[in-house]
Backbone:
């Protein structure tokens, strides 16, 4: 069952959902991180998030900060610390808008 807010977003703007779930050919740094040549933006975010959780990269004092290791830094523009709110925007940079 989808939350009401998500249902409203999907019905109001189906292109927004398509941008999240369409498969895209990945640039090489992201391809090496994810281990696939094609993935959706949402799938890429899920891979990054699971990597952060598996490797305990969240700051123990402030859970809104992520301490990036070398592998994560390679796709997050070389930043050593990133706020969780910044993650979607940084990942979106690897998925250029393709005219349809």
Residues:
């Amino acid at each position: 069952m989808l939350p009401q807010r998500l249902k409203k977003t999907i019905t109001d703007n189906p292109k927004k959902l398509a941008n999240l779930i369409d498969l895209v050919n990945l640039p090489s740094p992201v391809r090496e991180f994810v281990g696939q040549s094609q993935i959706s933006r949402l799938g890429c975010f899920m891979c990054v998030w699971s990597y952060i959780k598996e490797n305990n990269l969240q700051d123990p004092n402030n859970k809104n900060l992520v301490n990036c290791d070398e592998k994560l830094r390679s796709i997050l523009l070389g930043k050593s610390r990133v706020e969780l709110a910044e993650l979607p925007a940084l990942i979106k940079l690897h998925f250029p808008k393709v005219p349809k």
